[in-house]
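Hi R.,

Here's the chain you asked about this morning:
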Amino acid sequence: MIDKIYEQERQHLNELMTEADLFAKHSIQHSGKIHPTLFMHGIHGKAMFAPDDMSNEQAKDAFAAMARLVCIAHGADATVFVSEAWTRFAKEGEKLDVTKLPSQCPDRQEVVAMMGQTRNTCQQRMLPMERSANGKFLGFGEARIVDADHLEGRFANFMPEQYPNAETRDIALEALAKLGVMVNKRENQRDERQEHGREMKRGM
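And the predicted structure, written out as tokens:
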């Protein structure tokens, strides 16, 4: 039974990755940039959550904290965070120097970073962005899948280690309502009876 739940969560993660990929490509082609966005799958289906501000470290920390609360409130079992980023890839036969930030290196690459997680697996996809000398977007390079046993950092591990129960979700929802936080629900396909059935399976 547990294996079936894990398989469903991996399927949810793959679906979110596909949506994040389409979102990134549409955004860059129509606005020239990608607004950092969290995609999630929860007890009522898919949803999106984006920050109002990411202009400084405090705003980034605030978004990360709020995203974790959103994942609790919606009982998320899979998430994908998508944003623009700088990265570096190791050359063939060489180890990557991780002592330097990618943004400070001349061989850095601009990418769309998609960081996906369930509680039992994770995926990273890097989609290289190609620009002209004056910064005009030209297109995407071939996507690279980065293997990882776990993800670390400010924009990772949004979900709590344990599945939140109904009472915990309600408390989180109430806190979000008081803060005026809005979450864009993508679909609403599950009712409380289905969720109750899933919680019963988890307890087996």
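The beta strands are 37-42, 45-49, 78-87, 109-117, 122-131, 137-140, 144-146, 184-185.

Let me know if you need anything else.
M.
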